[in-house]
Design brief:
The complex is a heterodimer of chains A (120) and B (177). Chain A is α/β, with parallel strands linked by helices. Chain A has a single domain, classed as 2-Layer Sandwich (Transcription Regulator spoIIAA). In chain A, 38% of the residues lie in helices and 32% in strands. Chain A is built from 3 helices and 6 strands. In chain A, helix 1 links the parallel strand 3 and strand 4. By secondary structure, chain B is α+β, with helices and mostly antiparallel strands. In chain B, strand 4 and strand 5 form a beta hairpin. Chain B is built from 5 helices and 7 strands. The two termini of chain B are 23 Å apart. Chain B has a 5-stranded antiparallel sheet with strand order 1-4-5-7-6, with helices on one face. A two-stranded antiparallel sheet of chain B has the order 2-3. In chain B, 41% of the residues lie in helices and 27% in strands. In chain B, helix 1 packs antiparallel against helix 2 and helix 2 runs antiparallel to helix 5. Classes of the chains: A alpha/beta (120), B alpha+beta (177). Chains A and B meet through helix 2 and helix 3 of A and helix 1, helix 2, helix 4 and helix 5 of B.
């Protein structure tokens, strides 16, 4: 299966989706001009991956900032992950970033996927 | 005495590229004075929602048949105890009531109410609008601010009003309502 490896920019996050190495990660800043367009390949990838996933999927979110349009797409990603058995979410937030911690808590209340919270 | 300072003013056309430049300028300015990282994040957050709102809706203005390019304005100011993020942009008059109601509703909610409203909208809105918005921008601005959003609509013509919006981010670490 193809590997997605996108470098982050000042307005888009770094994304790695690599099933062979078991790395699933979105990190950095997300405020693209067109969030739906930016995240569509990720959603498509997850659809394919979900058809025959690894026994365990640890999906890492390590976001410094995301805008509200991205938050909708993050929920879409989480909703896909919800249907993939063996998925856990690792939600990183900077130790003094209460808003990012709260955002993770809220997402965890919107989907039925186990969340682990980590500071960095 | 209160020291009031403008950090930046931008007037003209708004695009994603301009948004990035304006954000970078404000970040540099806040870094230069050693602003608290939490305050910096909140200011950044409100700026993004504000600027992207203007970018998304800037092509909606029509006078008669033809689309009209009306400049919008964006400002960040700083007092001893707060940041003020102000934007002004023309909107069509038929949007005024909807916006007014939405902002009144947001201002009627307390912290917990805003949180619930945010979750309700993110869960129930199917996809993004054709403009690419999630319908969450103002709610998020109110949550990050912790203060009421201040807004006004000034009629400019039979079709167009000038919509101004001011968001306050307090610099003191204690939350006040």
């Amino acid at each position: 299966m193809e590997v997605i490896n996108k470098e982050g920019t000042e307005d888009t996050p770094k994304i790695i989706l690599n099933r062979n190495d078991g790395i699933f990660e979105i990190s950095g800043r997300s405020l693209p001009e067109d969030s739906a367009d930016f995240y569509q390949p990720i959603l498509d990838w997850l659809d394919k991956y979900g058809a025959s996933p690894n026994p365990e999927t640890l999906f890492v979110f390590k976001l410094e900032y995301f805008n509200t349009a991205s938050s909708k797409l993050i929920l879409d990603i989480l909703s896909k992950l919800e249907t993939i058995t063996g998925t856990r979410i690792q939600w990183f937030f900077h130790e003094d970033d209460e808003d990012m911690e709260e955002a993770g808590t809220e997402f965890s209340e919107l989907v039925e996927v186990p969340f682990e919270f980590q500071t960095y | 005495m209160v020291t009031r300072k403008l950090i930046l003013v931008y007037e003209g056309e708004f695009t994603q590229e301009i948004t990035k430049s304006v954000l970078a300028m404000a970040e540099r300015n806040m870094d230069a004075i050693g602003e608290d990282s939490g305050i910096k994040r909140k200011v950044f957050n409100v700026m993004v929602e504000c600027l992207q709102n203007i970018v998304k809706h800037s092509d909606e203005i029509q006078e008669g048949e033809a689309p009209v390019r009306h400049g919008a304005i964006f400002m960040v100011g700083k007092d001893d105890d707060k940041y003020l993020i102000t934007s002004g942009n023309p909107i069509m008059n038929d949007k005024v009531e909807m916006l007014n109601n939405k902002l009144d509703h947001i201002n009627s909610l307390d912290k917990e109410g805003l949180k619930n409203y945010y979750k309700e909208v993110i869960k129930n809105n199917k996809g993004l609008s054709e403009k690419g918005g999630a319908g969450l921008g103002f709610i998020d601005m109110a949550r990050k601010s912790g203060q009421k959003l201040q807004f006004d609509f000034e009629p400019m013509s039979d079709n167009i009003s000038f919509f101004s919006l001011k968001t306050v981010i307090r610099r003191s670490t204690t939350d006040s309502e």
